Amino acid sequence: MKSPALLPLRTLFFSLLAWSALTSANAQNAEAYLWKPVAIGGGGYFTGVEFAPSQKDRVYLRSDVAGPWRRDTVGTPWISCNFERDQTDPFISAPAAGLAVHQTNADVAYANFTMDYSKADDLYKTTDGGRYWKRVKEVQAVEFSKNAGRQFGPNVAVDPLNPNVVYFRTKTDGLYRTINAEDPAPEFAAVLPQQPGEVNFYSRSVVVDPKVNHEGRSKYVYVTVAGLGVYLSENGGDTFSLMPGSPTNVRWMRLGGNGKLYIAGNTGVYRCDDPRTAPDKWKDITPKTDGNVASGALGIHPDFPETTVGRGAWGLASDPGKTDRIVITGLSASPAPTADKPERVIPKWELWRSSDAGDSWVCTTHKLGDSVTAWVEKNLGLKLLLNNGGLAIDPFTTNRAYLFTVYQIYRTENIWDDEIAWELDNRDAENVIPLTLATPPSEATGVTAPLYSGVSDVRGFRHINLGQPPDAWVTAPETKTGNDYAHSYVTGYDHAESNPLLMMACKDFRFSPSNILKSTDGGLSWEIMPRPIPGKSSIGGDVALSLDGSNVVFGPANGMVVHFSKDGGTTWTPSKLAGSEDPFLVSGSIDAYDFDASVRSDRVKDGVFYAYSTWKTPGFHVSTDAGATWTKKGATADGTELKGRGGAHPTVAPVTLAACPGKAGEVWLGLNFAGIWRSSDFGETFTKVEEFTKDLTRPQMVAFGKAAPGKDHGTVYVHGKGSQGWGVYQSTDLGETWTILTGFQGTGVRVLAADRQVFGRVYLGEGASGILYGVPANP
């Protein structure tokens, strides 16, 4: 499903969230809420920094999943520029693959937004600094991979001499140009179609050279074509021809303030001194060991012949002034042969700087500043500072540079100094995808945190102070095979209700030696538990603990069999369907982003476990024998089959399954298109919660939080469409009455949780923009 060209709804400006009271006749059923971001401090892939040519300090920040951010003052929080749309519109994840700003109007920008599930590769325009976006060019990619080519660019360019001219380089459909970009419906023409032999996705840079005017627009335009080289137009983009001898695999292309054209790619770094009159004169300026690198430092390791993405230079930035200064990042030629491939090297990330256009290089030193969070410094540190990233130099303040990487966005104020100090600069730009949230109750020691998160790539965190980044991520001492420091996902949590200090977490990663982690101190430390399914490392899923934690149920994804343990997770046994020898399975999903909340324990009745299966035998199941056998339940009064599905599409959040604290047998289901369902008899029968059956076309989720004063059972929260529209609803009387919590405007909710320690505090895991927490505006 495509988003409408113009979406006249409200967007989340992530760092400026504000509450707004409803003024309807139902005001007694509404409560004004404040919504704020939970601080994480990095963890997502930032792919570009783009400057407004006409406004100092107006900067746009691109990422691989959450769309762009914007700010107008250095060091202030970033403001989300995600789409102005309904909370559950398809753009839960809208990576900005490219972005370019109008030459004289900083509020006008063009961005290439891509979506894996629909192969959309479209160009959008904003005229108000990113608040509203309108699609101006729709493109369908022949093939698609959001990951491929996301660190290459830029692929959108506005002509510096004529902002009516905009270039858009697609993934698999060549280069488009419009010469009436400021019209309400600009027309685009294919000026450089996909070329025979072109490698899809890679080398999509477009650079417009404003040196010479040609019929009211810039005469020279450069476009990279993967596998073939750089193409040049000498007539304002009407036609293009290959620049002889140009590099064939390019990550970044920059036009220096000195007029020289620089290329960085997986085979090295190159320069064309006069691309206008001598387009065939290219010079290899790659830093080379014992060659053009000062002090005998190691040079860049050249690419291995069989790959188009592997090594060489990654980041490239040139001084916007008329100097010969350039900076690159890349993998060094550190000579450490591997046992199985002795002819190769184990590379090391380095940053090189040149003041003579690359004729000679200095391998710089760099350090992390005080702003870098503890978990980043401990787990990622300098070794991953330059990882797979890019560079950009501020045209107004040329000592200021940005380094955007797989995990963070950094800024320095001394890019040309001998030692470069990098400060973390992602305030309110939390470019991570929440997968699961846990909220254990308080206990006597006060150690349990109010919130534990499981997120993409960087595992998850124990959040003590919601406004401060956590100190450490969820991890345990491990014998690592491969890169287990990152790209690891926590997909499920649970705690023992009678001892919340006892917790377990499910971790999903192909190199990981563990599936289950266990903590006995509220998540301060974790230990590895034996794998429930030996030999299977990438499983993911969910976990549920009995009241004291001695009985554990593991609900794996990837089509694996549910397992249970009666000794706290030391030994595991496969579960079965009751009355048969058939295995019990809950999820066939192979993607951590799609895992459902599949298993839960009753919070009052010991030994009772619940499961919702979307695989093989779909529906609601109950076990009363510690998870050994499972019986399908969930009869409904009208005979409706209790089925729903989550995670298969960005508009669909995972299925939610929530057991009520303080009331035995009270279990609720959020089944997305099938609505919200409630059982008060341990799942024997279910009834629809009619408040949320007005619109079953979008995801709906449920969670339990701390009981309201005077109540002996938990408070239920629903994200869905109720009588007052889409939003977050609260009920302190198990659905008899509902109150909408106002003020939330989001980028697509996929996880819902409620605080068990603070009444009324609720958490929303955004589609790709981190975690929000909501609290009453008038406590």
Question: Describe it for me?
Answer:
The protein is 1% helix and 36% strand. With 779 residues, the protein is mainly β. The chain contains 1 helix and 58 strands. Residues 1-27, 85-92, 304-309, 341-345, 479-486 and 647-651 have low confidence and may be disordered. The strands form 12 sheets. The protein has an 8-stranded mixed beta sheet, with no helix packed on it. A 7-stranded mixed beta sheet has the order 31-32-33-34-35-36-37, with no helix packed on it. The protein has a 5-stranded mixed beta sheet with strand order 26-30-29-28-27, with no helix packed on it. The two termini are 41 Å apart.
- Beta-sheet strand percentage? 35-45%
Low-confidence stretches: 1-27, 85-92, 304-309, 341-345, 479-486, 647-651
Please give the number of β-strands.
58
Measured between the Cα atoms of the first and last residue, the distance is 41 Å
Portion in helices: under 10%
Strand order, main sheet: write it out.
52-53-54-55-1-58-57-56
Number of distinct helices: 1
Characterize the main sheet: 8 strands, mixed
SS-based class:
mainly beta
Radius of gyration: 27 Å
Mean pLDDT across all amino acids: 84
Basic shape? elongated
